[in-house]
Structure formats: structure tokens, C-alpha cells
Specification:
Helix content is about 30%, strand content about 25%. By secondary structure, the chain is an alpha+beta fold. A hairpin with a 4-residue loop joins strand 5 (about 115-125) and strand 6 (about 130-135). The protein is globular. The chain starts with a helix and ends in a 12-residue tail after the last strand.
């Protein structure tokens, strides 16, 4: 058994070396290395924390597991993460409940009770720049010295690669939270029983961010988005919108929320065929108290010269841009986009994504996009991966790409 484990650890080390030493995208290599460690050690969660020397604070750049800790900031020297970074010494906790060094974890505050932990410094031989943290064996067992050593190897390789390749981390203040999902579940009737599509989602959505939700078909992406958009209801848990409990809204609250607070962009466009592009936008504008002038919304999606055309006279990309104009004319705080480029070719997709990029940049609107296309995730501020109804990982993009830089 020990030989099999040793072989698995050696394989993991080689995988990490390949990811880090033959790096094209440093952020992808680091998040991929964290995933290798978490999977190899059969753990529930993990994070790579980075230190901002200017503020002497730590934040998780990548994390894996059911808890959303991406808006967390820790003072250097505080908590296990801060102590490891401050001292440059590894800590292994075999039984958190009875370990005097353990006084709680960031993960504990985010619906994941810490039982066991490995936390090792990211030391590039000159200074400690952060730490790698692994939480809880799935089988309830304890970590051992060999597993600690594997984490230390990974952290050393990561720190050296960061030093060679350069990774500038600007840890600004916490972002304002727009919406929060707390342990959200969703069940549907299925035969004589129920099908649980969402199995405890914990996620914060921030103001003025572009967040992409990735995952295979059936993982719960669209269901989660529909709950946030008020088009479906959670079974259990809590949904907060700007700190107001929106878990079980009244019909009046729901109508107002969908009309004035949220904009929708669908894969199928959903335009009214008997109305021109401008009239489609005007129809939506009439539903809210303080809309953007419809002609301005049309101009923002660069369709002023086609505003009098009917949907049947427009290309797929142009119809989607009308759909975007309908979404922004309400001046919503949140735009939900469900596979908005799935029916479009590459060139047209880039045109549509460029418009969405402009909305986030210049209008201060939050965009939450569900997509199968991992390339689009390179544009996002954060990438949330769902797997089997749970959040598998969350990654911050330090340097989001522009739409025109994407290739697939």
C-alpha cells in the first residue's frame, strides 16, 4: 500500500513539474498544480494564498472546494495561513478540534469545518510570498509526513516558477458584494423521488465584476443562474441580494426584481419578430422607471444603422446584440448571460463578447455568464467551476484577456 502511495506522489510531482516548468500561462499552471495536489491527497479543499508586500495582507488567488473564500483578506501573521507565511515554516494539523495552534479557519467561516490541514510556505529562496493550504481528507483520515513533503515540493516549485516568470499580485480592498448564495440546494421531482441538482452552493457575486460559470451539461450552471435571476426558486439555503434575504420573495418583489434589477441575455435571443430592433428595446424600456434612452442602448451595441430592421433581417450576431441592448436599457445592476455565443460562429462571438466586455468596463454592471467554452473564461475576473451540483473551484484572473485576444 505504501509503495502504491509513493508511486502516486512521484507521479503527482512530475505532473506539477510539467505544469510549472513548461508554463504558457502561469495562473493556469498554478491552479492546475493545486488541483493535482488536492486530488492526489484526496482532499476536500485547498487554496494558494499570496502576500501583498504593500499591505502585508494575504488573499487566496486560487481555491478548490465548496466554500467561496475569494473575497477574503488575512493579515500576515494571523491565522494558520498568516502564521505559515510570516514564519516560513510548514504546519500540519492532524486533529483541529484538539490542536492548540488552531483557532479557526477561513474555511470554517464558509461552511466547511476544518478537521485536518497541511499549510506550507511559498518560499522562493529570497522571501516568503504566500502559502499553499490543503484541507480535510475525504475519508476522514489524517495527513502524514510524506504528504506534507509532497506539498512542500509543490510549493517550492511554484515559488521558484513565480520568481522566474514574474507574477504581480495587487491585493486591493475587498469588493462590494452584490449577491450571496449560502448553502443553496435545488431539487426537482424525479419518478418516485427527487433529483438534487444543486447540492450546497456557496458563492459571492461582486459589484462590477465579470464572472464566468463553467461546467459540463447537467452540473447545475443554468439552474444556479435561474435562481439568482428570480426565474426559479431554491429548495433550501439562502439567497441574499444586497444583504436583503431574497430566498422566498413575494410575487410583487419577484416581478420588480426581474424587471428593474436584472437583465437577461439568452442563447436563443428571444426577440419579438414583429418589432424592429429599436422597438424590441423600447418595449423593455417601458417596463422600468428610469431606463436608458433606447437609441443610446442600440448605439452601445453598434447597431444604430440597423435599428429599423426586424429580427428576420438581422444576422445571429446582430440579433444577440439587440438582446444585449434590451438587457442594458433597464440599467440593471446584474446581467445574466446563458450561453450567449453558443449559436454563433467565432467571428460573431468575438463581436458579441466585445460588447459584453465594454458593458462591464464602462457601465459598472456585473455580468454572470454561463458557458461551456473555457476560452471565454480567460476574459473573466473570476472563473467558477461547477461539478455535480457543487462548486469545484474558483480562480481569479489577475490579467483578464480582451475578447479579441481569444482563440478557439
Amino acid at each position: 500500500m505504501r509503495m502504491a502511495e509513493d508511486k502516486r506522489y512521484v507521479q503527482a510531482t512530475y505532473q506539477i513539474m510539467e505544469a510549472l516548468l513548461e508554463v504558457d500561462n502561469l495562473e493556469d499552471a498554478l491552479s492546475g498544480s493545486l488541483e493535482i495536489i488536492v486530488n492526489t491527497l484526496k482532499s476536500e479543499a485547498g487554496a494558494i494564498w499570496f502576500l501583498d508586500p504593500a499591505t502585508d495582507r494575504l488573499t487566496p488567488l486560487f481555491h478548490i472546494g465548496p466554500a467561496d473564500i475569494s473575497n477574503t483578506i488575512v493579515e500576515n501573521g494571523m491565522g494558520i495561513e498568516g502564521v505559515v507565511t510570516k514564519t516560513g515554516k510548514s504546519i500540519m494539523i492532524e486533529d483541529a478540534a484538539n490542536d492548540p495552534r488552531f483557532d479557526g479557519s477561513i474555511f470554517d467561516d464558509n461552511d466547511l469545518v476544518t478537521k485536518t490541514m497541511i499549510c506550507v510556505p511559498l518560499n522562493n529562496l529570497h522571501e516568503v510570498i504566500g502559502c499553499v493550504q490543503i484541507i480535510n481528507k475525504k475519508d476522514g483520515g489524517r495527513y502524514d509526513a510524506e504528504e506534507l513533503k509532497l506539498c512542500e515540493h509543490m510549493a517550492s516549485l511554484a515559488a521558484i516558477t513565480i520568481d522566474e516568470k514574474g507574477l504581480v499580485v495587487d491585493l486591493s480592498e475587498k469588493k462590494e458584494v452584490l449577491a450571496v448564495l449560502k448553502n443553496v440546494t435545488k431539487e426537482f421531482p424525479s419518478g418516485d423521488g427527487v433529483l438534487q441538482v444543486l447540492k450546497g452552493i456557496n458563492l459571492e457575486i461582486y459589484k462590477n465584476e465579470f464572472v464566468v460559470i463553467l461546467g459540463e451539461s447537467g452540473c447545475g450552471k443554468t439552474t444556479m443562474m435561474n435562481i439568482v435571476g428570480g426565474m426559479d426558486f431554491l429548495t433550501d439555503g439562502q439567497l441574499l441580494i444586497e444583504e436583503k434575504d431574497f430566498s422566498h420573495p413575494t410575487d410583487a418583489e419577484l416581478t420588480r426584481y426581474r424587471r428593474e434589477y436584472v437583465g437577461f441575455i439568452f442563447q436563443a435571443y428571444n426577440l419579438m419578430p414583429n418589432l424592429t430592433a429599436l422597438e424590441n428595446v423600447e418595449f423593455i424600456a417601458e417596463l422600468v422607471a428610469h431606463p436608458m434612452p433606447p437609441k443610446e442602448a442600440i448605439a452601445k451595441v453598434k447597431l444604430s444603422d440597423r435599428e429599423n430592421n426586424y429580427p428576420g433581417q438581422l444576422s445571429g450576431g446582430q440579433q444577440q446584440r439587440v438582446s444585449i441592448a434590451r438587457a442594458i436599457v433597464k440599467r440593471p445592476k446584474l446581467i445574466l448571460a446563458d450561453e450567449p455565443t453558443a449559436a454563433l460562429d467565432y467571428t460573431t462571438s468575438i463581436e458579441v463578447l466585445s460588447v459584453i466586455e465594454e458593458i462591464v468596463k464602462n457601465q459598472g454592471t456585473t455580468v454572470m455568464m454561463v458557458t461551456h467554452n473555457a476560452e471565454i473564461a480567460k476574459m473573466a475576473d473570476r472563473v467558477v467551476k461547477l461539478r455535480n451540483g457543487r462548486i469545484a473551484s474558483i480562480k481569479k484572473n489577475l490579467h483578464p484577456q480582451h475578447a479579441e485576444e481569444l482563440v478557439w
